[in-house]
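Q: Start with the shorter request: fold the first protein.
A: Done. Sequence, then structure:
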Amino acid sequence: MINILIVGVGGQGTLLASRVLGSYAALKGLDCKLSEVHGMSQRGGSVVTHVRIGESVGSPLVSEGEADFILAFEQLEALRWSHYLKKSGTVLINNQRILPMPVITGAQSYPDGIFDRLTEESKSYKIIEGLALAAEAGNTKAVNIVMLGVLFRLMGESLDTAREAVKASVPAKFLDVNLKAVTLGYNS
């Protein structure tokens, strides 16, 4: 069983990322359950998607302390959801800050020391320059697919398998950019 939590803010493509993982599971002949929590996604709020892949998956929800991987498309979201990571798990963090509404309005400040706090909590993490790699692929909105490329490599999957999962999930007009994005993430 592989338990993955995908976290970000509205508009970062968490739902597409979960569909790519669902396609990956189908390609491998595995069962996959997804649970999407939208929250205030249309207003840039927190979004989390639970993905469970295995021979037979009962519940679609990843329990706290059981995630093998957390894909965090934004730094604060990595910290916010880190309690879901198992001791041997890894948080993949896109090195990007997207200010939540309370920070934009001045009611709160964006927390400093996110990576230090994760280290203090003994969380294993890898920082990915997802925005730069997505720009290199041709579209800064492809951060989600860059992050999936890194995930597929860490899961021990081939680049060909990663590319097939993307092909099965992404509309044709966006396919070239997303194939570049998954390749750049995989090779980062």
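Q: Next, the second protein, separately.
A: Sequence, then structure:
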Amino acid sequence: MYQNGEGVVQSYAGAAKWYRKAAEQGFADAQSNLGLMYLKGEGVVQDYVLAHMWLNLARAQENEDAKKALEELLVNDTMTKEQIAEAQKMAREWQEQHAESSD
């Protein structure tokens, strides 16, 4: 709603706040949307590493939007190998942390 201004004043920062809350709970659509916001710098400081991390987590849950965005991010040589490795490490650590907390 905040992203599109539906029923509220449009606010990318507000959208990012609520996407983050849902993304941290493991919702793939929210992870994908948050990743796209980091990719575009909408409501957050543009950060390709965080974009990759969130998109990677969403892709692991078979989110098609995340899969397409991640492919475009990698095809365009936007990130260095080091940045990609850092994003992948962060995604693994996030998954491990949330797998432990759900046990």
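Q: Describe the second briefly.
A: Residues 12-101 form one domain. DSSP finds five helices and no strands in the chain.
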